[in-house]
Amino acid sequence: MASVSVYNMEGAQVGTIELSDSIFAVPVNEHLVHQAVVAQLANKRQGTQKAKTRSEVRGGGRKPWRQKGTGHARQGSIRAPQWTGGGVVFAPTPRDYSVKMNKKEKQLAMKSVLTSKVNESKFIVLDELKLAEIKTKQIKAVLDNLKVEKALIVTKEKDDVVVKSANNLPKVATTALNNINVYDILKYDTVVVTSEAVAAIEEVYA
């Protein structure tokens, strides 16, 4: 089993933790990781864009002038696409962008990115993360002690004090275990996880 060091909030090593090989030491499947990222970004799209075609624009039912003899080009409607106020030629319509993945594929993609972070020594375990008050300086001090700048902080459950303390740090994001995803893990250089969150991850993805 792979083992990583456990640090306290002062950045001092206080022990080690054994990580499950079935989660943190699996063969990295880059294809599934890519598929998971594509699916997540696609599923975030609302798909509610809409513009009107010439058949949907109000007005333009009458031919603006007779076909011949006016010196103008022939026109059938003042709502044709070349007219101001006319319809759009290939107008976008609401659509569903969602991409589906099997449950096992999602799990393997998650295990792959967790394994890659462990292999790159970008997976840092904290014994605990408890702040006395909502203070950006406190969370910044913890990350400085760990020598981390761009990080994803993962806690077992949502901690409003930690979340609000990290809100003003542009290169730091926080998430609870139930919202952890492949895209965020890849987006941030380092994953900082509490020891209880590690235990929960092993329980969820076992």
Automatic annotation (TrEMBL):
GO terms for biological process, alphabetical: translation
InterPro entries: Ribosomal_uL4 (IPR002136), Ribosomal_uL4-like (IPR013005), Ribosomal_uL4_dom_sf (IPR023574)
GO-annotated molecular function: rRNA binding; structural constituent of ribosome
Region (Disordered): 43-84
Taxonomic superkingdom: Bacteria
Coiled-coil annotated residue ranges, if any: none
Record keyword RNA-binding present: yes
Keywords assigned: Ribonucleoprotein, Ribosomal protein, RNA-binding, rRNA-binding
Bias (Basic residues): 60-71
One Pfam short name: Ribosomal_L4
One GO location term (cellular component): ribonucleoprotein complex
Physiological role: Forms part of the polypeptide exit tunnel.
Subunit structure: Part of the 50S ribosomal subunit.
Family: Belongs to the universal ribosomal protein uL4 family.
Protein name: Large ribosomal subunit protein uL4
Gene transcribed to yield this protein: rplD
